[in-house]
Amino acid sequence: MVPKAPAILPPLRQDLQLHAGPADAGGAPSWVLHDPVAHRFYEISWPAFEILSRWSMREPKAVVADVCSRTTLHIGMEDIEELSRFLEQNFLLDQHGPEHTARLQRAGSMHRTGRLQWLLKHYLFFRVPLFRPTALLNWLSPRMAWCFHPMFWKLLVFLGLAALVGVSFQWDAFVGTFVGYAGWTSVLGILLSLGVAKLAHEMGHALAAHRHGCRVPQMGVAFMVMMPVLYTDTTDAWKLPSRKARMQIAAAGMATELMLAVVATWAWMWLPDGPARAGVFMLATTTWVLTLVVNLSPFMRFDGYYLLSDAVGIPNLHERSFALGRWKLRQVLLGWRDPAPEDLSRGTTGFLILFAYLTWIYRLVLFLGIAFLVYHLFFKALGLLLLVVELAWFVLLPVSRELKQWWQGRSGHRWTRSSVLSTAVLVVGLLALCVPWPGGVRAPAVLGAEQSQWLYAPVAAQIKLLDARYGHSVSQGQTVVALTSPDLEQRLAAARVREQAMQWKLAQQPLNADLMKLGPALREQWAAAKAELNGLAALREQLDVRSGLSGRVMTVSPGLEPGVWVRQGEPLVQVVADGAIKIDAYVVNAEMPRIQVGDAASFMPEDWRLSAVKCQVASMDRVALSHLDHAFLGSPHGGTLPASVDAQGMTVPLHAVFRVRLDRCDQAATPGLQEKPGVVAIGSTGRSVVGGWIKKAVDLWNRESGL
Questions:
Q1: What was the pLDDT predicted at 381?
Q2: Are 567 and 582 members of one domain?
Q3: Are 51 and 34 a contacting pair, CB within 8 Å?
Q4: Quick one: DSSP state of residue 459?
Q5: Per the structure, how many domains does the chain have?
Q6: Structural domain contains residue 10
Q7: pLDDT of 602 above 90
Q8: C-alpha distances in angstroms, 622 versus 442, 591, 657?
Q9: How far apart are CA 555 and CA 542, in angstroms?
């Protein structure tokens, strides 16, 4: 039951301050009530201001009568009741006695946290004030007054455009600046530039606030998940009656960094190579871009949030939009018909609801990223623990609070079509996640002939004869490609001369005193020359590239024809034997325990025109692959297996991947069979999605905790 207005209005606290505020969206004036004890600001409407102005009359009826007679407003006792309740809930009344003391104690206990909760909260975010900048701002403000002149910013825009034109003439040198810097001196220059940029950013906020008459009580460093971030306390900006002035304060930090970027661009064009140029390059490029990306986002309480809040004229933008977002969510999912948290226009309500949902999505992605970043930054067990803390605090806790509200409000609402449909979807979704689904292990795979062979060029050579066309039959030992290598012929002739010379010396050794001094070493030299000759002769024989099996030519490298030069090791022709087929599946480590030799498998080719192939598991590798034989299955080449390409051009899996060989297929290799990618399903034992999550979580814990 709503409490009635008191017969006699209790006195207000004497330390409260009232400031003129900006006009609201409808053009009506507003005021800001400042509580200096809690350092909170409350924006109040015109009716509330008129009531507070007459609060000393003490009698509610007299206040209502005076407001209605002296202004164009029409208020009632309900307005007195609502304002009195607001003042009492926020401890803005000068009240004494046991009941008031008990209320203060209850409010304090609600905000009091346990040691563990205190540790978690302050680990996620805490501030360290460094100094009070009032004296510095008093000295600096008149000396920096020129920065706030409109002509200065027009000149800065002109200088910025001129700097871009100047850099365009040295664009290659500009974009290649950072690549050429290494060593501690350049790193120190870059770190110094970042520090200067962030310090200038905060000083820009402070100077703008001081210029508009706001008190800047402190500046310092805040730690967000142990990452240091400078901050400036500009809370007094809420006293300003002009939203334009508040927006100038919020944008001053970014404007200062843009000014630094223009100066740094000009400095880059004049400075010689070295640490100083590396530092100004960072100021001219990276720092201000990162500042805009981070600070312009209205989804966190950074500069962009306050800019948007003042631009649309909606204070407490997050809280009000979240309340409307939750109200709309309950209306759609549960069918609740509760009144909206506040009476706004249809367009404003839709904007706030959309803004709430976008903020939730943005924060979910951001918090997940922070959680996994923390996990990778710290050592095993601590990183895993902090990952759980991040997910629980930022994701699970807000969701659980909302679900708790749904559960507590169930008694005051009836079942509706929306709530029945939402419940049915929830139940079906939970069953889909918890029930094991048949289908076994699914993995990317490649179907091909059981026997195939690629023929390669043994040395850099020229094609003399190409007896290979797609689909041609070849027999084992048949010459498919004949090569000629003038370089090899020259090396062979030189080796033959050396071998003959060494053989003559060996024959003359018993008759020549000088050769006799060489002793057994001469025979060893002859043996080495003969081995070199035999090796080159064998390599010459390999210029006739022969097939190692009987089959058909399936692949001929593009551009091969007589007279074309090929490099050493270049693939020339692929020969595939007719007969049985095989399938190589690539299975990740987590799925290997679910596979046994002899399990049935089904291969579904990517080409929908081809039928499925039934096989059995023949063997499984016990050692993870160092690289993928079928590179097209890796993510760099459009495949599904996460992989990277190393310096040798090999496709290396990012996670442990094992080869599983399938045979005894129900189809034989057709003439002209080529390798065909697809997906293989092995076995029929299923696992629920939740079961898979639990297993991955347990495996992760066992691996990272060292158990």
A1: 66
A2: no
A3: no
A4: S
A5: 5
A6: no
A7: no
A8: 19, 13, 10
A9: 20
| Type and span of the H or E element at 705 | helix 689-705
Packed helices 397-408 and 317-334: angle between N→C axes, nearest 10 degrees: 50
Which CATH number is 660's domain given?
Answer: 2.40.30.170
453 near 481, Cβ under 8 Å? no
Burial label for 141, CB within 10 Å (0-12, 13-18, 19+), is middle
Enter the tokens of residue 342: 């506040």
Entry pTM: 0.62
Q: Is 379 helix (H, G, I), strand (E, B) or coil?
A: coil
Rounded CA separation 468/462 (Å): 16
For position 705, what pLDDT does the model report? 60
Residues 489 and 400 in one domain: no
- What is the helix (H) or strand (E) element at residue 573, kind and residue range? strand 571-576
Q: What is the mean pLDDT of residues 211-219?
A: 90
Q: What element of type H or E holds 604? A: strand 600-605
Looking at the fold, whether 135 and 261 belong to one and the same domain comes out as yes
Provide the domain limits for residue 155: 116-312
User: Do 265 and 390 have their domain in common?
Assistant: no
Q: Classify residue 198: in a domain, yes or no.
A: yes
**Residue 11 lies inside a defined structural domain of this protein:** no
pLDDT at 593: 81
Residue 488 DSSP symbol: H
What pLDDT is recorded for position 1?
A: 42
Report whether 551 contacts 474 (CB < 8 A).
yes
Q: Which two tokens stand for residue 388?
A: 């759980």
**Half-sphere exposure in the Cβ direction for 72 (13 Å, CA):** 1
Per-residue pLDDT of 367-411, as tens digits, reads: 888 777 777 776 666 677 777 777 777 788 888 888 888 888 888
Q: Which helix (H) or strand (E) holds 645?
A: strand 643-645
3-class SS string, 175-227: HCCHHHCCCHHHHHHHHHHHHHHHHHHHHHHHHHHHHCCCCCCCEEEEEECCE
Same domain, 358 and 267: no
Q: Are residues 378 and 518 in the same domain?
A: no
Average pLDDT of span 228-238? 86
- Tell whether 548 is covered by a domain: yes
**Residue 579: how many CA atoms within 13 Å on its side-chain side?**
11
- Indicate the residue among 111, 126, 143 that finishes a domain: 111
Domain boundary among 76, 111, 146: 111
The pLDDT assigned to 206 comes to: 93
> Could you tell me how far CA 429 lies from the centroid of its own chain?
28
pLDDT greater than 90 at residue 422:
no
Q: Average pLDDT in the 222-234 region? A: 80
The beta strands (E) that lie in 414-564 are given as: 441-449, 452-456, 461-466, 473-474, 479-484, 544-546, 551-556
pLDDT digits (tens, 9 = 90+) for 72-111: 888 888 888 888 888 888 888 887 767 766 766 666 665 5
Residue 133 and residue 95 share a domain: no
Q: Indicate the pairing of strand 651-653 with strand 657-663.
A: unpaired
CA 344 to CA 268: how far, in whole Å?
52
Cα–Cα distance, 198 to 192 (Å, whole number)? 10
| Domain identity same for 132 and 269 | yes
